[in-house]
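Subject: mismatched residue count in predicted assembly?

I count 309 residues in my input, but I want to confirm that the predicted structure covers every chain. Input:
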Amino acid sequence: MLSNVLNRASRSDRARRAVEAIPVTRKVVDRFVAGADQDAALEVARGVSGRGLATSLDILGEGVSDIAGARRTRDQYVTLLGALGQTGAGTGTEVSVKLSALGQALPGDGHRVALDLAHDICVAADAAGTMVTLDMEDHTTVDSTLAIGNELRAEFPRTGTVLQSNLKRTAGDIADLAADPVRIRLVKGAYKEPVSVAHQRKAEVDEAYRGDLTRLMASACYPMVATHDPQMVELARRLGREQERGAAGWEFQMLYGVRGDLQGALAAEGHQVRLYVPFGEEWYPYFMRRLAERPANVAFFLRALARSN
Ligand code: FDA
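Triage response: the counts match. Full output below for your records.
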C-alpha cells in the first residue's frame, strides 16, 4: 500500500536525499511547515492568533543520535520560549516536543537525558507563561514518554501527553490518567506499527478513536481532540455538550495546512481550536508522514512536480 511505502521512506536516508533533491519539494513542504526558522514560525503564530485560534509550535527534528544534538534541541526550545515570553505571545501559544529529539533513544541513559532536557524546556515554558505537550512517537517509546509526562506533571501540572488510538493499549492508558485533570491530546496515530500492538485497518482505528474519545470526554482530563475527521469532530461536539464541558473544558487541535476551512468554522462556532505549527529545516520525516496519511497529498505533490517541468 502507498501509505506503507511512504512510511518506510520516512525512515530512509536514500529516499530522503532523493526527495530533498527535487526542486519543487520545498514549495509543497511549505503547505505543512511554517518556515525554516523561529521568526517565520512566530509570524505564522501571530497570524493564527489573528484568526482567533491558538498554536502549538513544534521545532522539527527527531531521533537525535548524540547528546550534543539533544542539547541543541533543548537550547532551540529555550530560545523560542524566551522569545514567546518577551512578545507576550506566550499565553495563546504552547510548544510540542518530541522526546527522541531530546535523546530518548540514546543507549544507556536516554530516558534520563530526555527527562532532564524536557524539564529545562518546562522551566522555560513556565517562565514564559505557557506549557509543553510531549508528542508521542512509535510504540516502543510510549512507556518512557508516559513516565516522563507523569514525572514532569509533578512540578508542571499543565504538561500534556499524546495518546494514539491505533495502539491497543490506549484505552488502558486513558483509564490510568482519567482521575486527574491531565491535558491529553488524542490522535489516531501516524506511525506504521506491528499488528501485535496496533489496529491496522482504518475502520478499526476509527472505532478505537470513538471509544477513546468517549472515555476521555467522560474523564477528569482536559481533552485535546486532534483530528480532521468530520465524523470525529461531530462526535466530539456531541460529547462536549453531553458532558457539559463548556467551551473552556476541551479543545480541537489540527495540523497547520490541513482543513483550514474546518478550523475557521469551528472557531466561529465558539470552540477553542489550536493549530500544530511545525517549523525548521528537519522537515523530511514529518512531511512524509503527512503524505502517507492522505494519497491526495501525493497527487498534489506530483501535480506540482509536473508543473515545474
Ligand atoms: P484521517 O486520517 O481519517 O483523516 C480525516 C480527514 O482529514 C481526511 O479525509 C482529510 O480530509 C483530512 N486529512 C487528514 N490528514 C491529512 C493530511 N495529512 N493532509 C490533508 N488532509 C488530511 N500522531 C502521532 O502519532 N503522534 C503525535 O504526537 C501526533 N500529534 C498530532 C497533533 C495534532 C494537533 C494533530 C491534528 C495530529 C497529530 N498526529 C500525531 C497525527 C495523527 O495521528 C493523524 O495521523 C492525523 O491527524 C490524521 O488523522 P485524522 O484524525 O485527521 O483522520
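The mean pLDDT is 92. Marking this ticket as 'not a bug'.
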